[in-house]
Specification:
- With 232 residues, this protein is mainly beta.
- Strands 1, 2, 3, 4, 5, 6, 7, 8, 9, 10, 11, 12 and 13 form a 13-stranded mixed beta sheet that branches.
- The longest helix is centred in the N-terminal third of the chain and has 9 residues.
- It is globular, with a radius of gyration of 16 Å.
- It starts with a helix and ends with a strand.
Length: 232
C-alpha cells in the first residue's frame, strides 16, 4: 500500500521484525465503528508482515493494529494489493484456499489447543473455526467448522492501494470455547496467537506478523505463537 512518507515512517517506528515475543493490544475509549475506514484508528500499526516461515520481505506490505475495551477485541489491517483476488461468498466458505485475505489466531490460555481461527477476505466474507488439535499426539488436525463467534463483525474496504479490514470480536463469544480456560482479559493479561495474510496476487505468499522457525504445519505453529499482551 502506498502510504504517505509520514505514515510510513510511523509504521516503521513500531515495526516488528525477526522473532518478536510480544504483540501489544492497547486499550481504547474510542467508539470503534466497524466500517473498513481506518482514518480514525488511534492505536499504532505493526509490521510489515513477512514470509511466515523465513522472515523474508513480502512483495506487498501488510500492517495490523489491535485494541480492546471491556467488551471487545478489535483488529485492523492495511493490506497493499495491486491485484485483488477473490469475491463475496457465503459465510464460512473456504476462502483461505482461493482469496486474498487476512487472518488472526487466538489462543487465550496459550496451551496450543482449542484456539480460534478467523479470516476475512477483501470482499468482507468471513469464516471462523476452532482448531482443537494439530499434533498427532492428540489425534491430529481436529477442527470444528460449526464453531461460531456470536456478535463478530468484519468489514473490508477496497482502496486505490489495496484493502483495509476491521474485525470486532466480543469477549463473551470466546467464553464458549470448550476447555480453553477463557478468562475475560484485563490490563496485563497475556494470550497467545498470531496475525496473518494470504496474498494470491502475481506471486502467492503466506505472510505473518511474527514468522516461524518451523515449517511443519504452515500457519499452525502454536508452540511458536506470539504473546498478545493487553495494555492500557
Amino acid at each position: 500500500m502506498k502510504f504517505s512518507s509520514l505514515l510510513y515512517t510511523l509504521f516503521l517506528a513500531v515495526s516488528i521484525t525477526g522473532y518478536s515475543q510480544s504483540i501489544p493490544i492497547y486499550k481504547t475509549n474510542e467508539n470503534i465503528i466497524i466500517d473498513g475506514d481506518l482514518s480514525d484508528w488511534k492505536t499504532p500499526f505493526l509490521g510489515p508482515f513477512v514470509i511466515h516461515n523465513s522472515g523474508e520481505k513480502a512483495t506487498q506490505n501488510t500492517f495490523v493494529s489491535l485494541s480492546w475495551n471491556d467488551k471487545n477485541l478489535y483488529i485492523a489491517y492495511r493490506s497493499e494489493d495491486s491485484k485483488i483476488i477473490g469475491s463475496q461468498q457465503k459465510k464460512d466458505s473456504p476462502i483461505f484456499n482461493t482469496d486474498d485475505l487476512v487472518e488472526i489466531f487466538l489462543d487465550p490460555d496459550g496451551n496450543g489447543l482449542n484456539y480460534a481461527e478467523i479470516g476475512v477476505n477483501a470482499f468482507s466474507t468471513n469464516y471462523d473455526m476452532l482448531i482443537e488439535c494439530i499434533s498427532p499426539v492428540c489425534g491430529g488436525w481436529k477442527t470444528s467448522k460449526t464453531f461460531t463467534i456470536l456478535g463478530m463483525e468484519t468489514i473490508s474496504k477496497i482502496t486505490p492501494e489495496g484493502f483495509c479490514t476491521e474485525i470486532k470480536i466480543p469477549f463473551a463469544s470466546l467464553e464458549s470455547i470448550k476447555n480453553d480456560n477463557f478468562i475475560k482479559p484485563k490490563t496485563g493479561t497475556k494470550w497467545k496467537g498470531n496475525t496473518f495474510r494470504i496474498d494470491y496476487g502475481n506471486t502467492t505468499e503466506y505472510l505473518a506478523l511474527q514468522p516461524y522457525k518451523s515449517k511443519k504445519y504452515g500457519f499452525h505453529q502454536p508452540e511458536e505463537f506470539a504473546v498478545f499482551e493487553f495494555l492500557e
